[in-house]
Protein 1
Amino acid sequence: ETGVTQSPTHLIKTRGQQVTLRCSSQSGHNTVSWYQQALGQGPQFIFQYYREEENGRGNFPPRFSGLQFPNYSSELNVNALELDDSALYLCASSSPGQGAGNEQFFGPGTRLTVL
Amino acid sequence: AQTVTQSQPEMSVQEAETVTLSCTYDTSENNYYLFWYKQPPSRQMILVIRQEAYKQQNATENRFSVNFQKAAKSFSLKISDSQLGDTAMYFCAFVISGNTPLVFGKGTRLSVIA
């Protein structure tokens, strides 16, 4: 069973640029959630994709957008980068109906630095 | 809105000793799940233990156990026989049900000292 993978591991961008982060969900999982973890903070929910449709969104502006593909992998896109977007971006996959309290399996994250 | 509060930003414990991390949460829901996640320096979030709100019995997982007090909305984590590998950030998290997102606390940095 393959776990959740994310790419790239690290990324450095400048203000105003655009970035795309990628996530491959765990085998058998059709739901992907994205979280932003600022330094010293807990993860904050950005949005979730279920079967290629956005299925909930946290308090993030529209310049944060995403996609989910037929194989359930996902992308997070951030436009017009701001310094405050510097954070660890975590992807988590899950599958409704598998019970066990909706356990979400996390990837290792992408560290984004905006200069 | 659901919130999770971890009041201990940092804690330390001697190897082989026991430590308890605190967590309180706020929700008007009756059915939900609570989790403790561990995030070592490698950054990967790892599930430590899970508790279903409808179960009165406290969850245990080897050296890890919880004290779940539903009325007080409290969910503390006890780590027994602490090991150096337990050094990490620990996050308390909450989810209602269905495919809803996790709500995390700000975390507690635990250092296990040899």
Protein 2
Amino acid sequence: AQKITQTQPGMFVQEKEAVTLDCTYDTSDPSYGLFWYKQPSSGEMIFLIYQGSYDQQNATEGRYSLNFQKARKSANLVISASQLGDSAMYFCAMTRRGYGQNFVFGPGTRLSVLP
Amino acid sequence: DGGITQSPKYLFRKEGQNVTLSCEQNLNHDAMYWYRQDPGQGLRLIYYSQIVNDFQKGDIAEGYSVSREKKESFPLTVTSAQKNPTAFYLCASSPGTDFEDTQYFGPGTRLTVL
């Protein structure tokens, strides 16, 4: 069975600094996708970045990058130049082929950006 | 603008009543999903639908029902059989059901049972 682990319930970072949010996953499937979502206090889940299991390069989207280490089964999110608006819950999720694109979500990490 | 809408934003229900949460998307996505989120926790899948007139149970389907009569609509009914329905409900859609397809979420409905 798939499982996502996010070991940091809460993180603090100073404004303008970079921060890494950890995500490890467990699957025996060769084809899978890894996603990161941001959930601000309003509740909406905002898609940030995607990494496929066959992608050779780490994904990047603006200030977000994904540090994908396949052998270690980790997919850490790196946020560069943190902003106050980055304060939110962050969820790592994964899918796998043939499972109706059903997500498995991690428990989330609450990020607080300090001025 | 394309997107996913959910209504109402807040919903209050008396015990023993059924309520229906609306979810509409104009992204022309084939697949739609319903999730439940309890305070301080991640999301759990209630139901999903890959095509019109077809849907599958997720991990916590008991006490819920859905329909998919139109591609753009996927309403969720919380029945009186659901023992603890107070939660935040999120609807999502994706272009397809491959592992590469991203799910996009609506703004959510917060349900409170009085």
Protein 3
Amino acid sequence: GDSVTQMEGPVTLSEEAFLTINCTYTATGYPSLFWYVQYPGEGLQLLLKATKADDKGSNKGFEATYRKETTSFHLEKGSVQVSDSAVYFCALIDNYGQNFVFGPGTRLSVLP
Amino acid sequence: NAGVTQTPKFRVLKTGQSMTLLCAQDMNHEYMYWYRQDPGMGLRLIHYSVGEGTTAKGEVPDGYNVSRLKKQNFLLGLESAAPSQTSVYFCASSYGVGRIAKNIQYFGAGTRLSVL
């Protein structure tokens, strides 16, 4: 079945450092890909998405590019802030729009 | 605009007790979902619904039942709670029409359940 793999962390960075969180997926067909963020004590919120190969999703300084050849959707940010401390989930939805699969989540801590 | 609301926020049960978690959404979404979140395992789908009066099993349905009597509500029941059901439970909803943008899921704040 479909699956999502991502680095589990925790990832600890200093403020203004560059962030990469790796995500790879296994799916048949052409899934849509997502990054969700979960702040402490809250539910998940959509951060960005991409619906076809070579699409780039971006939001709040975060970016991820849908790479079908490497089945990857890595999350990047050029300069992290303390307020970016959260758990980040990579996810996909299959061709039929019903099977939503999440990765295990990566905890990011940004130190001042 | 409330979005997705879950009640209660916290609950402690003894083994064998029953309870119902309520999820309500005010976005007129067709699809609703129940997940559990455990350390190191991400979110796992328990049950979902693609419309009023319909439900389907997800990845980990055993020990849970659900009902979707009204479009805006999705109830998750534990008939006889077990310590293995200690987890954080999240409800989500989506438009569910088509595959692309409308399938963004909106999440509630979660219910933290402990079964002793």
